[in-house]
Amino acid sequence: MQKIALLAATATTLTLLAVAPGSAQGVAPRPLAITVAPGVNPGPGAFRPVVGRRGAEHAANMVGLADVDDVDLDDSVWTVTGTDLRDRDMTVIVDARSGRILKARYD
What we know:
This protein is α+β, with helices and mostly antiparallel strands. Helix content is 31%, strand content 26%.
């Protein structure tokens, strides 16, 4: 009887150890910051940014822009201008489709 209980306990332990790593692989980290608007097809020839104004501002904040002065959309890129924490003028260019930082420079 004790052998059966020991075998059952061992089998249960091995089963739990085999399942635990597989279930942890399904966990994906959340992306950092930029929120993406749901994909809506505005029609042929019309460009609608996937990353909105607030997403572009947030992306610019992530690279050091502290105070945003202006945000403009032109040719599928956001241009975010403002100052950093040391009060230096800064411009950040953000891709409106992906939210990727294309360029960050001090003016």
